[in-house]
Amino acid sequence: MKKTFDYIIIGAGSAGCVLANRLSKDKKTSVCLLESGPKSNTWKVDMPSALLYTMHDPKYNWKYYSEPEPYLNNRRIFCPRGKMIGGCSSHNGMVFVRGNPLDFERWASYDLPKWGYKNVLPYFKKLETWSGGENLYRGGKGPLKVNRSKIDEAFPLFKALIKAAAEAGYDTFEDSNGFRQDGFGTFDVTIDNGKRQGVSRAYLNKINGYKNLSIENDTDVSKIIFKEKKAIGVEVKKTIILRFITVIKK
Ligand SMILES: Cc1cc2nc3c(=O)[nH]c(=O)nc-3n(C[C@H](O)[C@H](O)[C@H](O)COP(=O)(O)OP(=O)(O)OC[C@H]3O[C@@H](n4cnc5c(N)ncnc54)[C@H](O)[C@@H]3O)c2cc1C
């Protein structure tokens, strides 16, 4: 069966979900988002402390292993990667930290001026609603809800550690994504009201009803079809999930 779209996005991970959101805002454009893995509407994704379930379940994870590492006694190292709507954002550690401003400045110095910190900062602000409120460095209207971690409330030792670091002469920071990142301080998390804030929740859920966006989970892209140097289509393998209903006779 053949279907035609203006855009086909392969992989509904962090990048794919944002792209699908942006492209499908133009109602005249048809967009298809293809994802190998299943939907991520499960408590195993929503509940922050359940992340180990999806990390070790082949239904939700690619479960890669590295090649044998000669400097690690030839051990193969486990490299989990999310395989579901939301991709790795549906099973990551939920720590929200931007790249260091000086790294962006370094990129800009390689003749890439658009990657300088002052140019990328508006996009960082655009993506988030920070619990601390909008300011020069932080956003207040974006789709991704970002909160200050409550780790310092849960563990009194955490505050004591930061105080001790300051007394020992180390820098401390108020906001890990603000004016200065170096030093000791509390980090931000993509958890809101006890639930993981992955990209599917932030960027897809609100637009799921868009008629011009078709989201196909359990659909593995096996081939990209080229006409000369232009990608014009894909071949997919669809996994059909059959569920058995067990009737227990009393
Ligand atoms: C264990 C772990 C913990 C992490 N913790 C943090 C953290 O605390 N903070 C942080 O900022 N970042 C963290 N990250 C990193 C962050 O989550 C990723 O960098 C980010 O989500 C990657 O986004 P992406 O769009 O590049 O790829 P992904 O999110 O991996 O998306 C790729 C998607 O493409 C799909 N796909 C692949 N091949 C095909 C195919 N052939 N056909 C169809 N679909 C396909 C995959 O199933 C996947 O859903 C963590 C990552 C991991 C693995």
Structural overview:
The protein has 250 residues and is an alpha/beta fold. It contains eight helices and 13 strands. The protein has helices spanning 14-24, 43-46, 51-55, 101-109, 117-127, 151-154, 156-167, 199-204; strands at 7-10, 31-34, 64-65, 78-79, 95-96, 128-130, 144-148, 188-189, 191-192, 195-196, 213-216, 219-227, 230-238. Bound molecules: flavin-adenine dinucleotide. The site of flavin-adenine dinucleotide has 24 residues, from helix 1 and strand 12.
Largest sheet: 4 strands, mixed
Taken together, the total number of domains comes to 2
Q: What is the helical fraction, as a range of percent?
A: 10-25%
Bound molecules: flavin-adenine dinucleotide
In the CATH hierarchy, what is the class of the largest domain? Answer: Alpha Beta
Which fold name fills CATH's third level, the topology of the largest domain? FAD/NAD(P)-binding domain
- What form results from the Cα inertia axes? globular
Mean pLDDT, to the nearest integer, reads 93
Q: Order of strands across the widest beta sheet?
A: 5-8-7-6
Number of strands: 13
What is the element string, with H for helices and E for strands?
Answer: EHEHHEEEHHEEHHEEEHEEE
CATH architecture of the largest domain: 3-Layer(bba) Sandwich
